[in-house]
Each structure stands twice: as C-alpha cells, then as structure tokens.
Amino acid sequence: MTTLVFGHKSPDTDSTGSPIIWAWYLNEIMGVEAKPALLGEPNTEALFMLDHWKLDKPEIISDVADDQPVVIVDTNNPAELPANINNADIRAIIDHHKLVGGLETKGPIHIVMEPLACTATIMWKIIGKDMAQMPSEIKGAMLTCILSDTLEFRSPTTTQEDKAIAWSLAESLSIDIPTYAAQMFAAKSDVSSFSEAELLRMDSKEYEVGGKQFRVSVLETTSPASVLDRKDALMAAMPGVAEADGADQVLLFVVDILNEEATMLIPNELSKSVAEKSFGATVSGDTVVLPGIMSRKKQIIPNLKV
Question: Which of 18, 26, 57, 289 could cysteine-pair with 73, CB 3.0–4.6 Å?
C-alpha cells in the first residue's frame, strides 16, 4: 500500500514542501512507494513555491483509512492531524516542534525530532550523501521551506545549521537568497482573495492555556497594513471562528517580517489580559505592538498566560 506523507492542517510552506521532499526520498532512495498529501489548501507562499519550482500540488485529504501507512512531518500533535490518525499505520515522525503526546502506533517507529527551525533542515541531514541525487525542483522546495520557517534567518528559531544548509542549497541552485526570499514574502503578503475567517485559520494552531482553548493565528507579511486595514472585520469574525472550532478565543498576531515585530489584535478583555500577562504589554486600544516577537513556536506559545 502506498505510504502517505503529510504535515499539519492549515498547511504552510514547510507542511507543503516537506511531504514532497520525503515522498521523493522514500520513492527514489528507499524504494518505498509513497506520495505527498495535504490536510487543506496551502497558503499563498506555498502555492508560489509549487508554481516556481513546477511541482504538482499534492492531493488534499480529509482523513486516513484504518491501517493506512503514513509518515507524519512538521507536527506530532493529534489535534493538527486527521481524526482517524491513531488507527492508521504510522511509520515515522519527522518534526521540529515540542512533543505533545497522544499519538498511538502499531509498533516501534522511526522518530526524528530536533530543535531546528524547519523540518526540511532535518530531512537534509537524514538524506545526507543521497542529496547528490535530488533534482533541482526538490532542492528548491527544501530551500523555500527553510527560508519560510526562518523568515530569511530573522526568526529566533533559526540555527546555524538552518543557515548553512540554506546557503548550500542556494549555491547549488544559483539562487540569490535575498531576491528569492523577497518574492516568497510578497506572495505570502497577498491575502486579498481570502475571507476574514480564512485568514484567521490560514496559519493557526490550537492550544490550551490555563483551561482556555485558543486558536493562535499568525500572519507573516512584509505588508502589515494590508492585514491591519481589515482589523475590524477580522475581529468581528473571531467569535464565529472560535465557536465553530471549539475555542474560547482566536488570538491573531500580524508579524511584520521586515520590522521584526508583531501586532496583536485586541477585540475584548480576554485578549487584552493575555497580551498584558503574556508579553508585559500595555494595552490601550484594539491593537498592541510587540517588538521583537516573530515566532509562535518560540516566543508566543511558551509565554501565553491567562
């Protein structure tokens, strides 16, 4: 049976590119029949990656069958995976997030988790000398994933390994990183075609903090005004999204990639309290700027308090 490789729901660039990378590795190097899959529509930056490197968009799936062989990448959180995931045959997990728990496997599996900025960086290390056989379009996906997750090395999650591997890939592809990253971020910043509800779910993760269920949404952009101009509509959409998704509150952070700061929307007293207790912010309106906040994984989620 073909092994499905997929990342988390609301797929970003890493959860779109890493399944493609690993499916190539399984097929071409390990001799295991595999194909990449997505758990939703990819974001605009991921679509740019697919178009730029002439890669097919993986099939979007809603669930997995019992005993379906799968490899999970870029997450280990059951809340971000298909409902039937624990009845599938999980063969491996490759991830760079904290261990959440709750996944069940049918036997011992291969797990690689490292404190790196990007899943694709981990894959580069695993693939090793077989990178020599990787076609340029797969290398291009790998480079895009790393530049996305590191925000072109601006994110505090960035390690020297992420940097070195990205520069090595760029050199082999004759890619100028600043020019290419600017194209990526321009694609990511174009959110004009998305509804407010879609924006709130586009790059979001579910977390429980102090007995409260939060949908923590991040929009990374080089044009924050294009998002903040819609703040009233975004805040109006938050209660409906929260209710539909079983959350108490949607927390939205608009990350300004170039100025290296985040603007948090403050629609009510709960979000105001979270901002003040979590980040030491002084809130006087319906937004608050958080200097230096770039990473949900390293700076937002670990600091959340209610």
Answer: 18
Q: What is the mean pLDDT of the chain?
A: 97
Is this structure's pTM higher than 0.90?
yes
C-alpha distances (whole Å) from 188 to each of 98, 103, 204, 302 are 25, 31, 15, 25
Q: Which long-range contacts (CB under 8 A, 24 or more apart) does 296-301 make?
A: 296/205, 296/216, 296/218, 296/253, 297/97, 297/98, 297/157, 298/155, 298/156, 298/157, 299/156, 300/216, 300/218, 300/253, 300/262, 301/205, 301/207, 301/216
In terms of Cα–Cα distance, which of 211, 213, 209 is closest to 305? 209
Structural contact between residues 78 and 100, judged by C-beta atoms closer than 8 angstroms: yes
- The per-residue pLDDT for 305 is 96
> What is the DSSP annotation of 257-279?
TTTTEEEEE--SHHHHHHHHHHH
Cα–Cα nearest to 300, from 274, 265, 267: 274
How far, rounded to the nearest angstrom, does the alpha carbon of residue 206 sit from its chain's CA centroid?
A: 13
Q: Which pLDDT value is given to residue 69? A: 98
Q: Which residue has the tokens 């660039």?
A: 13
Report which of 61, 39, 38 is spatially closest to residue 50, judged by C-alpha positions: 38
CA 277 vs CA 239, 274, 305: distances in Å: 22, 5, 6
Q: For strand 89-95 and strand 34-38, is the pairing parallel, antiparallel, or unpaired? A: unpaired
Q: Distance (Å, rounded) from C-alpha 187 to C-alpha 171?
A: 23
Confidence of residue 85 (pLDDT cuts 50, 70, 90): very high
Kindly report, residue by residue over 212-258, the tens digit of the pLDDT: 999 999 999 999 999 999 999 999 999 999 999 999 999 999 999 99
For the chain, the C-alpha Rg in angstroms (whole number) is: 19
Beta-bridged to residue 265, according to DSSP, are: 287
